[in-house]
């Protein structure tokens, strides 16, 4: 089969490799699509090295169809549409025991250390099959839509941390795929107004299309004025930072109302050191939260939201590349072309 193997920074080798053989407790998935994300870009650039294996097939946002199920495996018929939650948690560590498998200390991620979705086939390891990481889709939608359950699941996890209440005014900083998911989730959760800020007019147009009440170009408009206008000068109930620029953290703190919630959803570049006016948190009683990866439950929620059409994904997949052009696909994603890039074998 064809596969895209990470050989080290800057080196993605697309070539023939052995089709994986599965054990009696494993499932072989014929990949229908693998969507590319910022993490793949950072891995390939050598910016993300922790938890990344060498000579591994990249790709952690994948969906496809069951090609073969091991003889001990139940519940996966050949041909069934499936989507994979790529984080394989140990289910035994301190965090797993407390419902925080997303931050499992022994986590292994398909596409980082276990061969992933930038290939024609992917072997789902026994522990992932057993833990239910491989979800059977209720609708056989194009795989590139189902694959988006992974990034959406991370946003669902974030939403659990920052919460949106009925009639909230929410500010989403960033209108890449992640920002657009937070926008849609906030609306689903009952937000009255969602303000989206982004430099790119193309992305702001996407945000408006997906229901943003207001979009702001922070390079030419005063975001705090727009926020004041829509909140009677109080500030937003929730601000979600979806751009990994540390200086935005203090901006977000300053734009939230007293008692508001600020979620640092993005991972921040480099060491991620941000200078913040700590008294904003203190006097305004702000609640600051983070978000890391996703739990199986979040993944299932995300998958159902996509299948039922409550989260719009069709328009978000703007680019499709064949597997032979996986490197070009990652480069296109790095250039922030369109919204989401899919590799379709
Ligand atoms: Zn991702
Ligand atoms: Zn664990």
TrEMBL record:
Pfam families in alphabetical order: ADH_N, ADH_zinc_N
Recorded superkingdom: Bacteria
Residue ranges annotated for the Alcohol dehydrogenase-like C-terminal domain, each copy included: 177-307
Gene3D superfamilies documented for this protein: Medium-chain alcohol dehydrogenases, catalytic domain (3.90.180.10), NAD(P)-binding Rossmann-like Domain (3.40.50.720)
All copies of domain Alcohol dehydrogenase-like N-terminal, residue ranges: 23-129
Cofactor list: Zn(2+)
GO molecular function annotations of the record: oxidoreductase activity; zinc ion binding
Keywords of the record: Metal-binding, Oxidoreductase, Zinc
PROSITE patterns according to UniProt: ADH_ZINC
Keyword Chaperone belongs to the record: no
Family stated for the protein in its record: Belongs to the zinc-containing alcohol dehydrogenase family.
Name of this protein: Alcohol dehydrogenase catalytic domain-containing protein
Organism expressing this protein natively: Rubrobacter marinus
């Amino acid at each position: 089969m064809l596969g895209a193997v990470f050989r080290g920074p800057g080196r993605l080798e697309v070539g023939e490799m052995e089709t994986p053989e599965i054990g009696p407790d494993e499932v072989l998935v014929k990949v229908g699509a693998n969507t590319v994300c910022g993490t793949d870009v950072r891995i390939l650039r050598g910016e993300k090295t922790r938890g990344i294996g060498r000579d591994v097939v990249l790709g952690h946002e994948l969906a496809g169809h069951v090609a073969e199920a091991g003889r001990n495996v139940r519940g996966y018929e050949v041909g069934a549409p499936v989507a994979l939650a790529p984080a394989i948690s140990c289910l035994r560590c301190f965090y797993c025991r407390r419902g925080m498998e997303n931050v499992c200390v022994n986590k292994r991620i398909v596409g980082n250390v276990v061969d992933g979705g930038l290939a024609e086939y992917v072997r789902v390891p026994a522990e992932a099959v057993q833990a239910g990481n491989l979800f059977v889709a209720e609708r056989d939608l194009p795989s590139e839509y189902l694959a988006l359950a992974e990034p959406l699941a991370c946003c669902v996890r974030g939403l659990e941390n920052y919460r949106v209440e009925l009639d909230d005014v929410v500010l989403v900083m960033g209108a890449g795929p992640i920002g657009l998911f937070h926008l849609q989730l906030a609306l689903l959760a009952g937000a009255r107004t969602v303000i989206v800020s982004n430099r790119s007019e193309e992305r702001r147009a996407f945000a408006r299309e997906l229901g943003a009440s207001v979009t702001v170009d922070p390079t030419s408009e005063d975001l705090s004025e727009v926020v004041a206008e829509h909140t009677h000068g109080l500030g937003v109930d929730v601000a979600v930072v979806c751009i990994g620029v540390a200086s935005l953290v203090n901006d977000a703190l300053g734009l939230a109302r007293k008692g508001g919630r600020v979620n640092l959803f993005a991972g921040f570049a480099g060491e991620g050191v941000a200078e913040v006016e700590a008294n904003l948190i203190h006097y305004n009683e702000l609640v600051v939260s983070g978000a890391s990866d996703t739990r199986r439950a979040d993944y299932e929620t995300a998958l159902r939201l996509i299948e039922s059409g409550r989260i719009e994904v069709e328009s978000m997949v703007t680019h499709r590349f064949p597997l032979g052009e996986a490197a070009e696909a990652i480069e296109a994603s790095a250039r922030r072309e369109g919204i989401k890039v899919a590799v379709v074998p």
